[in-house]
Amino acid sequence: MKTQKIGFIGGGNMATSLISGLIAAGHEPSSIWVSDINSEQLKSLAERLKVNVTASNETAVSEADVVVLAVKPQIMRDVAKQIAPAIQQRKPLVVSIAAGIGERSLSAWLGPDIAIVRCMPNTPALVLTGATALHANDKVGAEQRSMAENILRAVGIALWVKDEKELDAVTAVSGSGPAYYFLLMESMEKAAAELGLTEETARLLVLQTALGAAKIALESSETPELLRKRVTSPGGTTQRAIETFQQGGFEALVSKALHAARDRSVEMSNQPEFN
Ligand SMILES: NC(=O)C1=CN([C@@H]2O[C@H](COP(=O)(O)OP(=O)(O)OC[C@H]3O[C@@H](n4cnc5c(N)ncnc54)[C@H](OP(=O)(O)O)[C@@H]3O)[C@@H](O)[C@H]2O)C=CC1
Ligand SMILES: O=C(O)[C@@H]1CCC=N1
């Protein structure tokens, strides 16, 4: 990958996932800058990942061709306004990973004529298995599109959506999605223990089964529905379990949860502090 200087504003969970992924994919740690208010976090990033760290957000901007905004949505306005002069001076590509913060707000805070890519990654970026959707504003040129795409592709799959509004659905599906699978793993582990398995056995079986199911679903040309039916022998154990899920309203519950997450994303983007 062509070495771009990347400045991360905020070095928390998601930034750490992205930086670890970028380095594992061959990106030079010396071309990455991270700023954060948390000095412990910076120390740990410098020690573990050998990236450049600074307490000054402006310094991270002034070193970068691409600035990744990776602070919590609640403080994005203050941070964006703080770095706006440095952004206006350098005019880097700005990539925001914040949930619920629209390009219109970012553009208003950062000032005119800034190329902004808004994206929604997820934490499996840490293990190079991330899923990210991106959307570009009309200031982003072809080269900048591929710069943004290259950063996110380094840590998993990256795809563009046509309409920025689609990012609310993406947040509900893949942004929050890892947590849904972890919840299922937690529940299966607890149930396995109730059935008499040791904690260690339960965990290993649950995790390997999740990995196997994901792998077979990715590698097969068949739909998850068909793959499920292949496991389900008529009158057998799987059928009994699936019927139990269905009688409990599983599909409707999943749909309700994803709608709730999507609605929360829309609600967040309409909050006064996000605009
Ligand atoms: N977690 C996830 O699965 C996903 C998160 N996102 C988005 O990623 C963004 C970051 O989330 P996440 O990494 O989980 O959050 P974290 O809280 O882990 O990371 C944010 C970091 O920014 C630091 N920070 C706070 N104020 C400032 C400031 N003024 N200047 C610089 N740094 C500051 C925080 O320090 P301190 O802790 O001391 O406040 C923290 O280290 C959010 O906008 C979220 O919506 C997107 C996709 C998935
Ligand atoms: O829970 C959240 O709001 C963020 C966005 C997607 C994952 N975490």
Automatic annotation (TrEMBL):
It is found in: Cytoplasm. NCBIfam families: proC (TIGR00112). It comes from Methylomicrobium album BG8. Residues 5-100 form the Pyrroline-5-carboxylate reductase catalytic N-terminal domain. It comes from the Bacteria. GO terms for molecular function: pyrroline-5-carboxylate reductase activity. Its EC number is 1.5.1.2. GO terms for biological process: L-proline biosynthetic process. This is Pyrroline-5-carboxylate reductase. It catalyses: L-proline + NAD(+) = (S)-1-pyrroline-5-carboxylate + NADH + 2 H(+); L-proline + NADP(+) = (S)-1-pyrroline-5-carboxylate + NADPH + 2 H(+). Pathway: Amino-acid biosynthesis; L-proline biosynthesis; L-proline from L-glutamate 5-semialdehyde: step 1/1. Keywords: Amino-acid biosynthesis, Cytoplasm, NADP, Oxidoreductase, Proline biosynthesis. NADPH binds at residue 57. Its main location: cytoplasm. GO terms for cellular component: cytoplasm. Residues 164-268 form the Pyrroline-5-carboxylate reductase dimerisation domain.
